Amino acid sequence: MTDILSYKDYYATVHYSGNDEVFFGKIEGINDLVNFEGKSVAELKRAFREAVNDYIETCKEIGKEPEKTYKGSFNVRVSSKLHKEAAIVASQKRISLNQFVQAAISYALKHDDEVIGVS
Fold first, then answer.
1. If you average pLDDT over every residue of the chain, what do you get?
2. Residue 52: partners with Cβ closer than 8 Å, 6 or more residues away
3. Angle CA(34)–CA(39)–CA(41) in degrees, nearest 5?
């Protein structure tokens, strides 16, 4: 993954604004909006760590669970052709379409950029 920071099992996407000449980021995977910024990479990383620590502390103070709950199900929209092809392959392998999709996602995560054609 690129353009990602991690700290204490929290992740953030980061970007650069040429207009403002500042790096900025957002903590991902939480139910709240937490942004941070810095003029340098070192400042951005420091601001991210501070944002995570502040978020954890704030959640603790108000008695809130800080992380988003992933329930393990989500809707995926694909073309009817891809849906049909996946269903046929799953049937041939004697597994459910859900099991096939789960295996495909697991494979893609293990093989990262090569699967989605990014080098």
1. 89
2. 7, 8, 10, 27, 34
3. 80
Q: Return the closest-CA partner of residue 37 out of 46, 5, 11.
A: 46
Domain range for 97? 80-115
- Asked if residue 107 belongs to a domain, the reply is yes
Q: What is the pLDDT of residues 78-105, one digit of tens each?
A: 999 999 999 999 999 999 999 999 999 9
Q: Which two tokens stand for residue 88?
A: 């046929």
Contact (Cβ atoms closer than 8 angstroms) between residue 53 and residue 27: no
CA 19 from chain centre, in angstroms, equals 26
- Exposed, middle or buried by CB within 10 Å (0-12, 13-18, 19+), for 47? buried
Indicate whether 74 belongs to any domain: no
User: Whole-model pTM?
Assistant: 0.67
